[in-house]
Amino acid sequence: MKINDIRISALGGTICSIWASISLGDLLQTVLTAALGTLVSFLTSRMIGRWNNRDRK
Predict the structure, then answer these.
(1) Chain-centroid distance, C-alpha 39
(2) Residue 3: pLDDT above 80?
């Protein structure tokens, strides 16, 4: 067995064990949290940009 085969086997086992421990609910919660964080970040940057434009006028 070559070193590369051992690395691929170890990586495959790691991925399988992680995959088995993640539920669909956890995945959906992560996706929704990321989407909400992105939205809040976008809106915050837009508001800060508008406040900066008011100060310059």
Answers:
(1) 14
(2) no
